[in-house]
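A quick aside before the break. I want you to see a complete sequence-to-structure record at least once, exactly as it would be stored in a machine-readable document. Don't worry about memorizing anything.
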Amino acid sequence: MNPRDHALLTAVLAICFLPPIPLPGISTVCGCVIVIAGVRMTWGLPPWIPRRWRERPLPGRSLVRVFWSMAAVMLKLEVMIRPRGRLISAHPWTLKANGLAIALCGLLIGGPLPPGSNPPPAFALLLLSIGTLEEDLLFLGLGYGALAGTLVLFARLGAMGWSGLRALLA
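That is the input. The structure line, written in tokens, reads:
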């Protein structure tokens, strides 16, 4: 099992939730997929894809456009992202912790939270996914920091309510 498979899937899903546009229903489904990917990564299992999706042909022209645009973005990001701290970032226990953190981000994305609350966990998820993909300890650290900040934000949101949090940030 390669944890990079899970990380690639979760990185693509995280990008969908970075804009603060509410996606009712989609966030719940994608959040469940992220949770499943994180848990399977923690257990060392390969990604699970339903048979009906595996047997479905992919549209060639659309995929070519997506891959070319992603390749352009990745070329720019490769300046910052590189394997760092492989002794720690590629350790099996680190990969298990990354899987749990990814699953937690999926729970936060898929949860019944107010509109516009998906970007903080999606940003943490993207950083964790990139750190796992590239075995980059710096991005993993940034991802865990973003996840901690997201948990504080959601704890405040739960304790004070949406209007109380807006008043606090204003």
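Two observations worth writing down. The two ends are 47 Å apart (CA to CA). The helical segments are 3-16, 26-43, 51-54, 60-77, 86-89, 92-110, 119-134, 137-169. We'll return to this after the break.
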